[in-house]
């Protein structure tokens, strides 16, 4: 779920991701980073996360824009769980 959110809505900060999922994402982010499926990028306001080149390569695409229904889902705002 976290990886899908990052693929379609990323890059996102940890607080943004946690707001969408409604749970603490520290452990899953650590595990996805260890597996090289996401990248952590330092910005002036902290860290942001996005899918990695390895993730894209495993799917056989070169950009998240090539994911099914990317344009529709990327534009659609994801609201937090009730």
Summarize the structure in short.
With about 80 residues, the chain is an alpha+beta fold. The chain has helices spanning about 1-10, 15-20, 25-35, 55-60, 70-75, and strands spanning about 10-15, 40-45, 45-50. Strand 2 (about 40-45) and strand 3 form a beta hairpin.
Tags for this model:
82 residues; alpha+beta; 3-stranded antiparallel sheet; 3 strands
Instruction: Compute the number of strand runs.
Output: 3
Please identify the oligomeric state: single chain
State the strand order across the main sheet.
1-3-2
Helical content class: 40-55%
Mean pLDDT: 86
The main β sheet shows up as: 3 strands, antiparallel
User: Pairing-aware structural class of the strands and helices?
Assistant: alpha+beta
Order of helical and strand elements = HEHHEEHH
Kindly, what is the distance between the CA atoms of the first and last residues, rounded to a whole number of angstroms? Answer: 17 Å
Q: Which outline best applies?
A: globular
Strand content: 15-25%
Number of distinct helices: 5
Stretches with pLDDT under 50, minimum 5 residues: none
Alpha carbon gyration radius: 12 Å
């Amino acid at each position: 779920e976290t990886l899908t959110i990052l693929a379609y809505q990323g890059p996102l900060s940890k607080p943004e991701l946690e707001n969408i999922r409604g749970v603490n994402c520290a452990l899953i982010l650590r595990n996805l980073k260890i597996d090289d499926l996401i990248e952590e990028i330092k910005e002036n306001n902290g860290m942001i996360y996005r899918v990695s080149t390895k993730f894209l390569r495993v799917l056989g695409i070169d950009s998240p824009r090539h994911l099914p229904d990317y344009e529709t889902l990327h534009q659609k705002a994801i609201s937090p769980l009730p």
